[in-house]
């Protein structure tokens, strides 16, 4: 082990901010024995932490609050946010506690946060706990997003217990340790705006600029530059979600990261059959956070952030930044979609082609991920390998016609079939985290078998590789998966 846990290079810069930003509060350990369910070596490396199974119990005790690292200064962050369109004046980490910030040998600083670590002053009526099921889902999905190259918080380890918690039924409490360079949210700014604590908005913005966007400090108005860069990152993030078929499920402004990370995994879902109106969250009756609404909700959330930053900038300048969001989103999205089709850049013709394909896929209920990946079988000049691609469509007439137009455009490019095929396989994943895959891991874990978490991490960390032994995870969801319902309850 390069670093033992005790020698982690801890700093507590967030705890040095005024005490109106957080509450110092220690995690509440489980009543029953803490059991290490999984340690993610890939995330451990970020803070130079290696896993050694001899230390499993020690790791479980640290990351469940039973033992404390000397230099840590645990705290829960304060924030507010717009939930389902309405401002909620106080939220905050109701079940998360940051232990401190570890600096790696590379000089990167990572906040170490426990989720499900007991009540805090912000718990409202909640028990401060997270259940095994939702913790496994967040654990797997944050690593799946990382594997797909989409900015995200990371998952370091999962610690389980036999403590009973009550959701719709009795479940067991689990703590997830996550890492992020910052967990600050849009809502962290909103709370000070609505409380009229304008000095605190500036202090928080200065903190974020100093630690995360130091180049902005020399701009004419660093705060406006901050809004600009967060707008850019959010536009790019949501374009990546759309291109991958990912639905967040609860895009409240308190779940939007100031660093443009995917943050707070709850009732998320990767789309299987292509359906632009896909709603992954069973509690979202109005479809506010439906898949195809995500880009506009991104703008709504950025407007909430801009509103909160208004004391630091001219309103017209803020509006100008917000007005740039749509075109930034579209340019990222169209490029990513052109790439999925095997083109290095986009054009009006390619966009028309991509829209036609999506509409055919919707009519035919095609699997979003598998259909794009199968495009590598299409050749510029022959039809010999096309059968598999065509077999994915219930009605192949429409797509045969589409293929003709596709090949016509391919013939205008200079990539060989082989080059294009490799390109397509490099941007269209073979594996996404289908709900049923997480469910298999959860069901096994409920019987103390954690092996599937490890199996899934192998493929999710490298989702573009073949992993033939896991081919079954590319298939349509089994019939029992129809009953899986994910909601905000976690
Ligand atoms: P989420 O929907 O998980 O993003 O959470 C929204 C807000 O509710 C945040 O302030 C959470 O900290 C809080 N929260 C969610 N679940 C619990 C819980 N079991 N106990 C306390 N607070 C919770
Ligand atoms: Mg949240």
Q: Any idea how many domains?
A: 3
Order of secondary-structure elements: EEEHHEEEEEEHEEHHHEEHHHHHHHHHH
Q: Which regions contain 5 or more consecutive residues with pLDDT less than 50?
A: none
Q: Which cofactor or ligand species appear?
A: adenosine monophosphate, magnesium ion
* Range of strand content: 5-15%
**CA-CA gap between termini:** 34 Å
Rg over C-alpha atoms, rounded to the nearest angstrom:
23 Å
SSE topology:
Layout: E1 10-11, E2 22-24, E3 35-39, H1 41-44, H2 56-62, E4 75-77, E5 81-83, E6 86-88, E7 96-103, E8 109-115, E9 130-131, H3 132-148, E10 154-166, E11 170-180, H4 186-194, H5 198-212, H6 222-244, E12 246-247, E13 269-270, H7 294-309, H8 315-323, H9 325-340, H10 348-364, H11 368-374, H12 386-391, H13 396-410, H14 417-427, H15 435-446, H16 451-461
Antiparallel strand pairs: 1-7, 2-4, 3-10, 5-6, 7-8, 8-11, 9-11, 10-11, 12-13
Helix pairs in contact: 3-15, 3-16, 4-5, 4-7, 6-7, 6-8, 6-9, 10-13, 15-16
The chain binds adenosine monophosphate (AMP) and magnesium ion.
In short:
With about 500 residues, the protein is α+β, with helices and mostly antiparallel strands.
Explain what you see:
The protein has 16 helices and 13 strands. A hairpin with a 5-residue loop joins strand 7 and strand 8 (109-115). The strands form four sheets. Strands 1, 3, 7, 8, 9, 10 and 11 form a seven-stranded antiparallel sheet that branches. The chain has three domains: 5-183, no CATH class; 187-266 and 278-325, no CATH class; 342-482, no CATH class. With 490 residues, it is α+β, with helices and mostly antiparallel strands. The protein starts with 9 loop residues before the first strand and ends in a 29-residue tail after the last helix. It has helices at residues 41-44, 56-62, 132-148, 186-194, 198-212, 222-244, 294-309, 315-323, 325-340, 348-364, 368-374, 386-391, 396-410, 417-427, 435-446, 451-461; strands spanning 10-11, 22-24, 35-39, 75-77, 81-83, 86-88, 96-103, 109-115, 130-131, 154-166, 170-180, 246-247, 269-270.
């Amino acid at each position: 082990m390069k670093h033992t846990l005790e020698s982690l290079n801890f700093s507590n810069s967030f705890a040095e901010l005024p005490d109106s930003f957080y509450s110092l509060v220690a995690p509440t350990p489980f009543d029953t024995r803490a059991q290490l369910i999984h340690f993610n070596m890939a995330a451990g490396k970020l803070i130079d932490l290696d896993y050694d199974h001899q230390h499993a119990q020690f790791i479980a005790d640290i990351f469940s609050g039973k033992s404390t690292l000397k230099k840590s200064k645990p705290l829960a962050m304060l924030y507010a946010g717009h939930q389902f369109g309405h401002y909620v004046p106080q939220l905050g980490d109701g079940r998360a506690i940051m232990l401190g910030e570890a600096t790696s040998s590379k000089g990167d600083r990572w906040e170490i946060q426990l989720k499900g670590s007991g009540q805090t002053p912000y718990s409202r009526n909640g028990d401060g706990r997270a259940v095994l099921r939702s913790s496994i889902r967040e654990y797997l999905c944050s690593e799946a997003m990382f594997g797909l190259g989409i900015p995200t918080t990371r998952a370091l380890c999962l610690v389980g217990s036999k403590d009973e918690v009550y959701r719709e039924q009795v479940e067991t409490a689990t703590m997830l340790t996550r890492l992020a360079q910052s967990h600050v949210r849009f809502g962290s700014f909103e709370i000070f705006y609505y409380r009229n604590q304008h000095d605190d908005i500036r202090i928080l913005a200065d903190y974020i600029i100093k630690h995360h966007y130091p180049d902005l400090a020399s701009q004419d108005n660093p705060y406006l530059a901050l809004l600009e860069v967060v707008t850019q990152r959010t536009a790019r993030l949501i374009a990546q979600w759309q291109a991958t078929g990912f639905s967040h499920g609860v895009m409240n402004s308190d779940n939007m990261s100031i660093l443009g990370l995917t943050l707070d995994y709850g009732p998320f879902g990767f789309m299987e059959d292509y359906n632009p109106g896909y709603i992954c969250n069973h509690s979202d009756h109005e479809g506010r956070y439906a898949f195809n609404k995500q880009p506009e909700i991104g703008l709504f959330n950025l407007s909430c952030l801009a509103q909160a930053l208004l004391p630091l900038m001219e309103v017209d300048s803020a509006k100008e930044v917000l007005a740039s969001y749509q075109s930034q989103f579209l340019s990222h999205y169209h490029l990513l979609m052109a790439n999925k089709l095997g083109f290095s850049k986009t054009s009006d013709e390619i966009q028309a082609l991509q829209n036609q394909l999506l509409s055919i896929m919707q009519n035919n209920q095609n699997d979003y991920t598998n259909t794009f990946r199968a495009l590598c079988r299409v050749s510029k000049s022959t039809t010999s390998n096309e059968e598999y691609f065509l077999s994915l469509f219930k009605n192949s007439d429409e797509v045969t016609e589409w293929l003709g137009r596709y090949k016509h455009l391919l013939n205008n490019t200079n990539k060989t079939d082989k080059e294009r095929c490799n390109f397509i396989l490099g941007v269209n994943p073979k594996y996404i985290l289908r709900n049923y895959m997480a469910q298999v891991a959860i069901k096994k874990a409920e019987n103390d078998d954690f092996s599937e978490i490890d199996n899934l991490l192998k493929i999710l960390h490298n989702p573009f590789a073949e992993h033939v032994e896991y081919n079954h995870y590319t298939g349509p969801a089994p019939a029992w998966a129809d009953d899986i319902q994910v909601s905000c309850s976690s």
